[in-house]
Amino acid sequence: EPEVTQTPSHQVTQMGQEVILRCVPISNHLYFYWYRQILGQKVEFLVSFYNNEISEKSEIFDDQFSVERPDGSNFTLKIRSTKLEDSAMYFCASSDRTRRDTQYFGPGTRLTVL
Amino acid sequence: KQEVTQIPAALSVPEGENLVLNCSFTDSAIYNLQWFRQDHGKGLTSLLLIQSSQREQTSGRLNASLDKSSGRSTLYIAASQPGDSATYLCAVGDTRGTPLVFGKGTRLSVIA
């Protein structure tokens, strides 16, 4: 069965460094999402992407964050200058409107900012 | 602003028991509701999705119900097994394609 993949599974970085988290959504899906989960807290929405542009973003998704779909398969989340509070599990998800909007999640990237 | 609450926060049951997990949401004007399973430190596995026009969905030993007017959903797990031990998350979508709003989850432990 097709699945969403994410790399790396764990990323450790120094505060102030840039990180890029990568996702490969399910191939025929059209909607892409990034969520994050700080340890012990709820899963929170960051941004959604459709038709090569951001369709919605939360207040968390400030100027430090950006998303890109650089080619036909990858979907990336960039954090320009990481802060300690960016430490979290980052999940990519995708959905296909013909399957009633079930969102399929990847396994996540654990980001640790030191 | 939509808020999703899950009760209880944690539940421990002996193997073989049937159990119910609860989810409530503040704005009943939802498009769909999705139940997920999350193993410790891992990703989210979609279990069931219920459209707002549906009352329930079933998959194997799992049955999810939706009462939109009262803002509630339940996840029923029959004949629980130790392998069911995980955190179960409820999430609602307000309109088609919009981001999901998650509850904090119920951490289930099934004791052999």
What's the structural blueprint in terms of helices and strands?
The complex is a heterodimer of chains A (114) and B (112).
Chain A: E1 5-7, E2 10-13, E3 19-24, E4 31-37, E5 43-50, E6 53-57, E7 65-68, E8 75-79, E9 88-95, E10 103-105, E11 109-113
Parallel strand pairs in A: 2-11
Antiparallel strand pairs in A: 1-3, 3-8, 4-5, 4-9, 5-6, 7-8, 9-10, 9-11
Chain B: E1 4-7, E2 10-14, E3 19-25, E4 32-38, E5 44-51, E6 56-59, E7 62-67, E8 72-77, E9 86-93, E10 100-102, E11 106-111
Parallel strand pairs in B: 2-11
Antiparallel strand pairs in B: 1-3, 3-8, 4-5, 4-9, 6-7, 7-8, 9-10, 9-11
Brief write-up:
The complex is a heterodimer of chains A (114) and B (112). By secondary structure, chain A is mainly β.
Radius of gyration of chain B: 13 Å
Can you summarize the main beta sheet of chain A? 7 strands, mixed
Q: What coarse outline of chain A follows from CA principal-axis ratios? A: globular
| Cα-to-Cα separation, first versus last residue of chain A | 37 Å
- The total count of helices of chain B amounts to 0
Number of helices of chain A: 0
Share of helix of chain A, binned: under 10%
**Through-space gap between termini of chain B:** 41 Å
* Beta strand count of chain B: 11
Describe this structure in words.
The complex is a heterodimer of chains A (about 110) and B (about 110). With about 110 residues, chain A is mainly β. Chain A is about 0% helix and about 50% strand. In chain A, strand 4 (about 30-35) and strand 5 form a beta hairpin. Chain A is globular and about 40 Å long. The relative contact order of chain A is 0.34. With about 110 residues, chain B is mainly beta. In chain B, about 0% of the residues lie in helices and about 55% in strands. Chain B has strands spanning about 5, 10-15, 20-25, 30-40, 45-50, 55-60, 60-65, 70-75, 85-95, 100, 105-110. In chain B, the strands form two sheets. In chain B, strands 2, 4, 5, 9, 10 and 11 form a six-stranded mixed sheet that branches. Chain B has a five-stranded antiparallel sheet with strand order 1-3-8-7-6, with no helix packed on it. Chain B is globular, with a radius of gyration of 13 Å.
